[in-house]
Design a protein that fits this description.
Elements lengths: L1 E4 L3 E2 L39 H5 L29 H6 L27 E2 L4 H4 L3 E8 L2 E10 L10 E4 L14 E7 L32 E8 L1 H6 L13 E5 L9 H5 L18 E5 L12 E5 L2 E3 L8 E5 L10 E5 L5 E6 L2 E4 L3 E4 L4 H13 L4
Antiparallel strand pairs: 1-16, 2-5, 3-11, 4-5, 4-7, 5-6, 6-9, 7-8, 8-9, 10-11, 10-14, 12-13, 13-17, 14-15
């Protein structure tokens, strides 16, 4: 069995799949609050000419110029960039990387596979507020999944999206991915990828038909864990316990409300969820894009979680049986809290190939630090 990160599905059959976290942990070189603010920048930290960026300057992936640390995040809106062809190209296949989990510590037996089930239509009435995240990597266009989450700084009016760290930043040997945009309730009408109607992939205004019923929301800020920025790599199987991110998005053209208002809901985030033994059922949702899926539908798996320890000195992860593939990365995991409400407690990070199970981080102080940093940055806006 090959362990692969449930990375974004990437065009040209290229998929960077896994992460290696070496020694940087809380108290040993990383920020204890998990904020992504101190990784050293490499080369130019911001394009001097915005028009040059919009005219294609973002395609220069020279490692010496790759925007790397939190202060370098730069993601200006490029109108019309995410059109039909580019969105379709972001639903390619994946490439697995052979990896063995070292120092596994305490892990429960591998769960039996759980077949992913398609969400009931329409999504806005029947599914968690999940959408697709589109972005550019050195290997081509890519896609992940994300969830609209509540923002305590803006009750009822959140513009925050939860996803995986590897969906926004390349880790130690790279920097921020580019042209990051979120499409909530993607393909709420369940248009198949082979349909003639599938050409309507553009950022349609609110109320329009097609696969972007609420338009395309560009990220104006994103943050991941300092552990990922300092040590994340495209090889190995470690580091997944810190594989999370938070995006702040700006309204799509023609929409004057917040993301939460436009979507109609947002999920609370629980940073104090129990260990796996304390959770009866976990539900994972996302847009799997690698075969046998095509990235056009929300799927989900429900299972009782077990423990997965990828490194003995790192936090234990949740693991469930699930057959979702690449493209489901970053999709939210939901569980009922002690108060009886459902909350986001994790996100899809890694799984084997062929797909049989998924693992996601248990959100703790590092995740809380990332979340509070993004929320606080926009508290006065």
């Amino acid at each position: 069995m090959r362990l692969v990160r449930r990375r974004p599905a990437v065009a040209a059959a290229v998929l960077i799949t896994v992460l290696a976290l070496t020694a940087t942990m809380c108290g040993s070189g990383g920020h204890q609050d998990g904020r992504a603010g101190a990784a050293p920048a490499t080369g130019t930290t911001r394009p001097a000419d915005l028009e040059q960026w919009k005219n294609g300057g973002w395609k220069d992936w020279d490692p010496r110029l790759w925007l790397r640390s939190a202060k370098d995040f730069f993601n200006p809106v490029i109108a019309g960039l995410w059109g039909p062809d580019r969105m379709r190209a972001a639903s390619g296949s994946q490439k697995a990387v052979d990896a063995k989990m070292a120092g596994q510590g305490v892990s429960d037996p591998e769960p039996a596979p759980v077949a992913a089930q398609a969400a009931t239509l329409p999504y806005r009435q029947n599914a968690a507020p999940v959408g697709k995240i589109f972005f550019d990597t050195p290997e081509g266009t890519a896609v992940c999944s994300g969830t609209v989450v509540q923002d305590p700084a803006h009750p009822g009016k959140s513009n925050l999206v939860w996803s995986a760290g590897h969906c926004v930043h390349a880790g130690r040997n790279g920097g921020w991915f580019r042209n990051i945009a979120f499409v909530p309730d993607f393909n709420d009408t369940a248009t198949p990828s082979t349909s003639s109607e599938a050409s309507d992939f553009s950022g349609a205004p609110q109320g329009a038909s097609g696969v972007a019923p609420l338009g395309t929301w560009w990220a104006d800020w994103a943050q991941t864990s300092q552990q990922w920025i300092d040590t994340g790599e495209a090889v190995g199987g470690a580091g997944a316990p810190f594989d999370f991110s938070v995006l702040h998005v700006q309204p799509a053209p023609g929409i004057t409300t917040s993301l939460e208002e436009a979507v109609g809901s947002a999920m609370p985030v629980d940073f104090d969820a129990p260990q796996p033994a304390g959770i009866a059922l976990l539900a994972a949702m996302g847009y799997p894009a690698a075969e046998p899926f095509d990235g056009t539908r929300i799927f989900g798996c429900v299972d009782r979680p077990g423990r997965l320890s990828v490194e003995s000195d790192q936090p234990t992860m949740y693991r469930i049986g699930c057959t979702m593939t690449g493209g489901s990365s970053g999709g939210g995991w939901f569980a009922r809290t002690a108060q009886g409400q459902f909350a986001l407690v994790s996100n899809t990070s890694i799984g084997p190939e062929p797909a049989a199970w998924l693992a996601g981080p248990r959100l703790g102080p590092e995740a809380r630090g990332v979340f509070e940093a993004v929320s606080g940055r926009f508290a006065g806006s």
